[in-house]
Amino acid sequence: MNIPWLDWAKEIQAISQAGLSYGENGYDLERYEALRKISVEMMSYFTDTPIDKVTDLFASEQGYQTPKVDIRAVILQDNKLLLVKERADGAWALPGGWADIGLTPSEVAVKETYEEAGYEVKPVRLLAVLDKKKHAHPPSANHVYKMFILCELAGGKAHEEAGLETTGVGFFGENELPPLSVERNTLEQLQRMFELARGTVSEVLLD
């Protein structure tokens, strides 16, 4: 979803963060700080969110700003896709979450699947790397790359009790998908994951 003011605010924030991290001239640093303040005020105004909360979530990092990475595990069993029910919105998503420092993408997929669903899995191959802004997700203050990794079941069993982030686990066929957590994955994306996971060609979907 393309929202011009959101793209502008994120670009201004990225420029100001890089300038504050690498600038040396005191006058320039003041200008970069002013740019950061403008980006925070834009985000606060258009989202009706308090300035301090926007600052914590949107403008508190240091160094050169880069996209965040969201990793999702794609697991098929009997042509049904493993999904978990998100506590945050009561809708369903592929197991996954933000990439962790010190772990490879495959290791994150394995960890998140076990923590959220209870299953042990083995990574097989990368299915897709998607730019969140090019898909039908709700607007986001972060620029996010989404990685989808095909995994095979290797053991474990579905959690019987709700976890910290999820409240349900299930396998769903392509024509019986439950309400989806579109913040995390869209219907179009899951339909493509069915296609890619079943394919014999090691195609990787980009952007």
Structure in words:
The model has no long low-confidence stretch (mean pLDDT about 90). Strands 1, 2, 3, 4, 5, 6, 7 and 8 form an eight-stranded mixed β-sheet that branches. Helix content is about 35%, strand content about 30%. By secondary structure, the chain is of the alpha+beta class. The longest helix has 22 residues, at about 25-45. The two termini are about 15 Å apart. The chain is built from five helices and eight strands; from the N terminus they run αααββββαβββαβ.
What is the overall pLDDT average?
89
Q: How far apart are the first and last residues' alpha carbons, in Å?
A: 14 Å
How would you classify the helix and strand content by structural class?
alpha+beta
Regarding quaternary structure, what we see is single chain
Spatial extent as radius of gyration: 19 Å
List the secondary-structure elements in sequence, H or E.
Answer: HHHEEEEHEEEHE
GO molecular function: hydrolase activity
Protein name: NUDIX hydrolase
Family: Belongs to the Nudix hydrolase family.
Keywords: Hydrolase
